[in-house]
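Anyone able to model this chain together with fe (iii) ion?
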Amino acid sequence: MLVEKGLVDPAALDALIDTYEHKVGPRNGARVVARAWVDPAYKRRLLADATSAIAELGYGGAQGEHMLALENTPQVHNLVVCTLCSCYPWSVLGLPPAWYKSAPYRSRAVIDPRGVLRDFGLEIAEDVEVRVWDSTAELRYLVLPERPAGAEEMSEDQLAALVTRDAMVGVAKVSPPA
Ligand code: FE
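re: yes, here you go
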């Protein structure tokens, strides 16, 4: 409708869609995670002010204006959802997958988070606290997964290649290197 009324240039829309479909994806977030794993000072900045720390690596803009990083530990597992719609940190993860936008995920993630994680193949031990975070238009989340065992000697680039989108939403852990 905006295009028909001449209020929006279709070329501008195409450029925006192309950017988030093809140029911005979860590799941005993976770079942030890998940096946090190898650089304790960066990790501290990320947990204190994620928006600024992410901007240090050149990522920001639409749907990433206000970010909070959530650290997974042996005691705490973080899971991100948007119960209202599909708010998602585009600047670090690209566009949300279809399941993230689905009604079952959005409702069950808050009612039965451990059950949802089990559906994703992730069993969280009873003595680990599961925290569910509801994204909004004002604040979006990036999960900082635990660095897997066996990855102690890997470079930052190699580590980034291990990090998956699902681990940064909190529906998976980062698997040890093969
Ligand atoms: Fe939303």
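The beta strands are 67-71, 76-81, 129-134, 140-144.
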